[in-house]
Structures are given as C-alpha cells and as structure tokens.
Amino acid sequence: MIAVCALQDLPPGEAIRVDADVPIAVFNADGTFYAIDDTCTHQDASLADGWLEGCQVECPLHASCFDLRTGRPSGPPAKVPVRTHEVVVHDGHIYVQVAARESALA
Amino acid sequence: MRSAITVVGASLAGLSAARALRAQGFEGRVLLVGDEPHRPYDRPPLSKDFLAGKVSLDDLELSTSDDDFDWQLGERAVALDGQDVLLASGERLASDGVVLATGARARRLPGMPLPGVHTLRGLDDALVLREELVAGARLVVVGAGFIGAEVASTARGLGLEVTVVEALSAPLAGPLGDEMGAVCAGLHQDHGVRLLTGVGVAALVGEDRVRAVRLADGRELPADVVVAGVGAVPCVKWLEGSGVRVDRGVVTDARCATNVPGVVALGDCASSYNNFAGQAMRLEHWTNAVQQAQVAAATLLDKEVPARAVPYFWSDQYGVRLQFAGHRRDGDRVTIVDGDTAARRFVAVYRRGDRPVAVLAMNQPKLFGRRRRELAAAVPQPA
C-alpha cells in the first residue's frame, strides 16, 4: 500500500502522480478515485497531466484517452492497457494498492 | 451501402481511418494498401528515441491483432479510376469507397542523392541515419523545423558536433513567429549546438560522399553527415488523371470529402478546410491524422461528422517539450501568460485583436491542456 495524499489535496477533476517503482497516476473523477500506471506508451507522457473527463483521461501528448476503470486506450500509439490499481480511502487519506506487474488486461 | 473500402496509405492516418470505419460500424471489406513493407508504425520517435537507439521497432508498431483489414503492404498505388485503385503490380482493387492517406515525402536538397546526406521521413531513413550518427562526427542539419531540430537534439545527445542552418531569421518562425522562434533558438544554444540563421544553402560539397555544406554567403561547413529537414511534399502525383482535385495536397472540405463522390482524403497528403483557422490547411501533424480519421470515416459512411478539434502539434527538443495549439498568422500578438521563457517553462498565448487564436507551451503540459480546451470551446461549428 502506498500513501498518496490527504483527501482534501485531491479535489474532483484533479490528478496526482505517485513515484513508485512504476509511476502511478491517481485521479478524482467526480468523487470516485482511480489509479492507473502514469505513463502513456513510449514512456513519453504523464497521464497525471492529462485532461480528465468522466472516467476518461486524455493523454496530454497524443490526445488518445485511457479508461480509468479498465486502463484501456482509445487509440494509437498505445496498444495495450495500462495497469489499474485499487484505491483505498482511510481516515481522510488516499492509498493505492499496487497491482501485480502482469495484471493489465491482455 | 458500401461493401468494400480501400484505404491508400498504411501509416497512422490510414490505419486510424480503417479503424474508424470499423468503430463506426462498417462491416464490409477494408483493404489497407501501403507502399512500405512495414506494418503501420509510430513516426515521432524516429527523430528521437528510435534514432538514439532507445526504442526498438517493436515499440513503434501501431497495429494490433484486433485490426481486421486486408493488408496489401509493399504495394504502390499508381492510379485511381473512379473508386477503383490500381496497383503497380497490375492488380485492380474494386471498391465503392476510397480513403486517400498517402502522406508526404521529404523534400530533398539539390545535389541529393549523395552518400552521407539524409532526409528523415520513414523507418528505413532512420535505420540508415542512425548508423552514421557516431560520437565525434560533424553533423550539419539543414532546416531548423521540427525534424531538423529533433535530429540536432538527438545527435547532440549522442555526442556529435552539430551545426544547424536555417534560412529564416529564427527556427520555427513560420508556425511560432519570430519572438517564440528566438526562444527555440535558445534551446540549440543552451546545448552547444551552433545555429546559423538567415542563411541558405548553396550546394553540397563532395563527390563520392559529402564533406561540406556550402552556404549562400560562401562559407563552407565541414560535414561528415548532413540531414535535410526542409519540408515535405504530399504524395499525390499518382492521382493525376483521376479527376480528384489537388492543390498543394488533395483538396477537401472540412469533412475530408474530395470533389469525387465516395473519395475522402486526410492526413499529410490532404489540403483540408479547417474551421478553426478559416482556411485550407495541410497539417502534417500526428494528432491531425488521428482526428481527421474519425471525420473521414463518418463522411464516407454518411454519418454525422464529429466536431473537429483545434490544430495541435508537439515537439521534443533537448528535453524540452513544446506544444502548440491553434493557428498563428503574422500580426498576431504573443504574450507570456505563465512561467518564464528563460527557464524554458512557460505558456504563451497569441491573440488576434482580443481573441486568443493559439497557445504555445514549453514543459507545461497541464496548463497547456487547459488553454487548448479553451481554444476548442471557441471553435465555430459547421453550419
């Protein structure tokens, strides 16, 4: 479990990047929290910098979207989903339970 | 009701159009014709991480096993007859819809071909070039546009001695204007790359291999390797006689429709009317290829066309990410609205009168994204 931040530090519509072994982006999508691997394909853009619309985050570089619920990309250059991670809110703090490396949908 | 659609051009634009056809419900045959033997691959890394040897060909591949198309790779289209596509092999692909996505090829310098002198457009170009970018070699880049600047950046990172020659007064002065072009000039200078502006190239010097670049002012720059980044020409010559109208690219309306029914065009080969800019534009940018694909497919399938986004491009130079959205004209006024150009971390807005028409950022993806959306909100929708 990785500590992310206090609840009030991640208001709706915002995202925060957590530097773990693989960076993770945590999103507050209209009050529901999601966490996915932070990096769009080719390791060249941080999804935490992307535009959040409903449950979709738009890569800040390519403008392709990732579904926060499944990690699935909507278009190129991403070909495979990014991993999704479980978010736990406890005592006013947000934590992420990092998924196993291979758990992205095939 | 169409039963077979041929997509000519198997790069990002063609692949995206083929996928958009499927996503929008087309169940007939989709034939994807590409003149390269390779499956579609991502081009932006060719001048950056791929050239630097940091990513492999597998990393670049764009197609997946979900792509349900009839692939015709390594095939050149030589004519369009109504809606039938004729290949160099003699085969005629019978279609009732055609997507033109043949892209563009790099413009060459006088004196090419000459060993040691390169252009960079496709994968094969990058494979040859990266063998020549060895530490200590002297590289002269002609043209400080996106390709030239990115190659200079990558080569400098590989330990080459790099000189960039630009005919205009500043790099990227066309899209960005002189003031922001000067900031881009600073990126080269920050990293020990010599930048010569306001001077053209007169000739390549060397018989069996390039050994220098002679400038219009008479100076000679010794060169072990030369890369010409002097623009691109749309691949439309094969359309002569087809009846499809061409003017600096295949002419289309904002819906990607050409003057020939059942034929649409998109991406680098198209000169499409752009609602945001209020004029026809040939946009050689990654995002345009993906976005236009949705529009082209909808037009071909007689569906409602999705809203067009604001023109957008990015470039990575010396670890700095430039992002630009909108359309700038001479006379537009640019102001820094956040950050500091000297720190190479800022957002600048271009205004025409009081109206924001474009935004440029360096290393500010989040703020840039917001400004870009504000521009999009102001786009007049088609009547």
UniProtKB/TrEMBL annotation, chain A:
Coiled coil regions, renumbered to chain: none
Keywords, sorted A to Z: 2Fe-2S, Dioxygenase, Iron, Iron-sulfur, Metal-binding, Oxidoreductase
Pfam family for this entry, one: Rieske
The keyword Metal-binding belongs to this UniProt entry's keyword annotation: yes
Record field: transmembrane: none
Enzyme class: oxidoreductase
Protein name in the entry: Bifunctional 3-phenylpropionate/cinnamic acid dioxygenase ferredoxin subunit
Species per Swiss-Prot/TrEMBL record: Amycolatopsis acidiphila
TrEMBL record, chain B:
Cofactor(s) named in the record: FAD
Domain FAD/NAD(P)-binding: 5-293
UniProt keywords, alphabetically: FAD, Flavoprotein, Oxidoreductase
Matching Pfam families: Pyr_redox_2, Reductase_C
TM annotation in the entry: none
Stored InterPro entries: FAD-oxidoreductase/Apoptosis (IPR050446), FAD/NAD-bd_sf (IPR036188), FAD/NAD-binding_dom (IPR023753), FAD/NAD-linked_Rdtase_dimer_sf (IPR016156), Reductase_C (IPR028202)
Keyword Oxidoreductase part of the UniProt annotation: yes
Domain Reductase C-terminal: start-end pairs: 312-379
Keyword Oxidoreductase appears in the UniProt entry: yes
Parts forming coiled coils: none
Cellular-component GO terms for this entry: cytoplasm
GO molecular function: oxidoreductase activity, acting on NAD(P)H
Signal peptide extent: none
Name of the protein in question: Oxidoreductase
Biological source species: Amycolatopsis acidiphila
